[in-house]
Structures are given as C-alpha cells and as structure tokens.
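Q: Entry one of two.
A:
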Amino acid sequence: MTKEYIEKRNNAYFVKDSRVSLDSVVYAFLNGVSPESIAQSFPLLTLEQIYGTITYYLANQAEIDRYLQEGELLFQQQREASLKKNKFIIEKINNASQVTG
C-alpha cells in the first residue's frame, strides 16, 4: 500500500491535506535543517509527513527543482515590477531615513 504525501492545487504543491507548501519543507531540507526541526517549525505536520515530503522531492527532484526555479523567477519579476511601480515612494522613504539616520 502506498501513501501520498503531496498534492498539487492551483499549480502549486502542498503537503496533502494541509496548507503547508512543498517549497517550505524542501527549502528547509536543502538548507540542512533536520526533519525533526522542520516538524517543530510546522507543528501541524507529522514527522511522517515531513519524511514523505522529502522522499517525494528526492524521487522527483528534477521536476521539483524546475518548479522551484520558476517560482523564484516569478518572485523576482514581481519584485522588480513592484519596485518600479513604487519607485517614488521608495525614494521618499530612503530620503526620509537618511535625514533621520
């Protein structure tokens, strides 16, 4: 009998039956955080779910790495668009902090 630990919803991966993203667990794992410490950071997940998520990542590493890279690229694009859109406000904040700093 196999158990599924990951589900895809709205073009994103999540730990099954939770709101915890696969990204959250995988990035912690890639940063050297132990499964036990990851479980402490996400108390709604069981240690079994954490290990299941890591196993899913390792079994589908090329696909998930592409997914993570796409997410990082989208984040950078949105960040740059936001900085451009709010350039005037950001300059105002920076100028104000220079005066008070």
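Q: Entry two of two.
A:
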Amino acid sequence: MFGYDLSETAIIGDQLFTDIYGGNRVGIKTILVNPMSNKDLFATKIFRIFEKGQYNKMKKRGILTLGKYYE
C-alpha cells in the first residue's frame, strides 16, 4: 500500500502472541517493548497469562530474557 519493502519495515509491539508472532510470520522485523499501561482489555489479560509462561520457557532455553536488548 505504501510501497515499502519488508526489509524496511518493523513492528513494535508489547504482546508476544499478537504483535511479535504476527510480524515474524510474515517476515517483518519485530521489536518487543514493555506495555505502556497497566490497564488491558479482557482478552489482552488472558493473552498476558499465556505470555508469562512462554517468557519463562524461552528464558530457560536461553532465547529471550525480559529487559535485555538483542541486536
């Protein structure tokens, strides 16, 4: 629509299962950030519960550590 290449695009999001997973599926670079608000919609609260478990699994495997910057 805007004429950009996927290599020129990044998705910045605070949800692992929606923003990051979706961007990675289509081949766009993704940037995971901390949520800006403590208030979430009901569905987002549900996803956050599952995200917490996924973060713990990834930390054990050495894939991702919250608060760490990856190039």
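A: Comment on entry two: The chain has a mean pLDDT of 85. The beta strands are 10-13, 29-32.
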